[in-house]
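Solute carrier organic anion transporter family member (Picathartes gymnocephalus), 715 aa
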Amino acid sequence: MEISSKENTHFFSNNTILSVDRSSFKSESSASKEKQSCCGGIKIFLGALSFLYFAKALSGSYLKSTITQIERRFDIPSSLVGVIDGSFEIGNLLVIILVSYFGAKLHRPRIIGAGCLIMSAGTFLIAMPQFFMGRYRYERFPSTINSTVSLSPCLQDKSQTPLSALGKSQAKIDAGCEKEAGSSMWIYVLLGNLLRGIGETPIQPLGITYIDDYAVEENAALYIGCVQTVAIIGPIFGFLLGSLCAKLYVDIGFVDLDSVPISPKDVQWVGAWWLGYLIAGVISVLAGIPFWFLPKHLPKPEGRKDSSTSSEQSKFIIEENKEPRTSLIIFSLACLLFLLFCLADFLPSLKNLFGNPVYILYLCASIIQFNSLIGMVTYKPKYIEQQYGQTSSKTNFVIGLINIPAVAFGIFSGGLIMKKFRIGVLGAAKLSLGSSFFGYLLLLSLFAMGCENSDVAGLTVSYHRTKPVTDDEQALFSECNSGCSCSKNDWDPICGENGVTYVSACLAGCQASNGSGKNTVFFNCSCVGTFESSQSSSAVMGPCQKGNECPKMFLYFLVISVITSYTLSVGGTPGYILLLRCIEPHLKSFALGIYTLAIRVLAGIPAPVYFGVAIDTTCLKWGSKRCGGRGACRLYDSSALRYVYLGLTLVLGTVSIFFSVAVLWVLRKRSSPQDETLSANGERGACGTKSRKDNFVNSEQLIQSTYWPEKETRL
């Protein structure tokens, strides 16, 4: 009996040990599987979010590249284009508070997916007017568009035009007037951009927080840095797509391209602007698909499972979802109580934030600087086209391939400098100030790198080649074309053999023409023959090229522009770190929210509008709509455009530098010489931080994960 009992005891103990070993093995195996699923899930989300950041950056930069195309297609001034550009920020602001607060409590990936659908719908809506407005109409003399009626450019006698032809022409104009409502279809572009802003709203706050919640803590910075790096690549492809579409005619696939008399160098040329929006919309749809299949929650990493806050929050959310829905009255009361509670804490926090002189001064400096940068970037393609006579395609190609990589490299260099030299708060303020100062100093040199106005008879030079010309529209008429029945509203430029551009063949006094389309040649032009420097009186289609010095000036402009973009971007990361280090820890999120809101409301929305209004004042020749009214500008005063565009940018930048100097002065006043020395050694900073951890910026977080608000806009 004793032997059997001992055997039974031994057998039972062995079974117990085996069961314990098996259970421990199962737990280890399940933990390993959970870890793998966590890592796999977060990496899938990371890949999807990176592609989505690429898609939204691509569509945003493509809009910038089509500013001049939209202006010409809808015959609207630059100021109205500025309103369209700012509508994105308006849409974003309409829902950002609701999305940021309530989105975190719902299924974040699916909300991001819904945002992608809204963003793609807005992108498609922008392109829709192209399919309802009919074919693009440009101002051209009838013989250049394969007209069956042979007309002389200079209609010395209206009787030489057959009445039937005049009747048909008038009938076409009347029919066009009935469709003139199509000119108001720019509203659909505005609404589409507004929808883009609404759809883009959940991507940043919900996407970044999702990564931060479920990624291993030491990997979160790397993951967020990857997302931001991909976001920088998006604008490059956006401008390159704009360059490709600008080469294609707007009605490609619907008209015979050989019959189109204008070329991409013509100011009336409109590229296939709508095609890029269709491509961007498809990319946005594809980017949103993965988010519909991602889970609401991922397994927490091992290092974060012990966090009581996270577990309590997760438990609260699960229990709340299990409860039955409350009535509408109880829900309304709860919302009201929550609002009162928030206001009770909101006002003291706001007072505390605005009582921080470093924060408020840096906020003012950033608002003014972003006004200058957003306005400059929005109208940079227009400036290059009008100042240096470049095509839209080449302009977008240059910006996408040269300027944007310089900005990205500048942002990276700023973080690298902060890490390499272990710069504290005071050093960050100095680096940010130095970057702005030297950047705007370089911008000053661009005033000397402009092209003179082209010689346009009646606008920049008189018909006798004397300057200046009066602003009176009667200056378009002279003795050489007094016998012609010409309209002062036409814009159909031709280039005389004397190197002077004429507004139309009629105003050049041309009596005959040969050929059609782009190959039309005009003969016996009385105004061309009046110049002593030319014995010939012929002219060809299209305006004359800019002066011989202009290509060289354009090359200088590109070099200085790239260096300026890099220099200004170097100060972005130090400035952002300065913002974070001089705010109490519990107010950081609130401070960043106020900062982003202020930049969008006071810079992102108004800057394109008043820059556009200022640029419109430099117009020399406005186009006219078919049924009357002012259209888009056809010719700008190059010198005035240069002074207005660069001058407004420089004045705003100079004011922002003064605020940056004030920030540095306040920091110096707060810190003693000992504090500055300690700050350099990593013990204490100018803002009164006490620990090495608060003063120094982790190199991975600084270089890889720093999020600079409005970075895509500044690009």
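The mean pLDDT is 77. The CA atoms of residues 674 and 684 lie 9 Å apart. ok done for today
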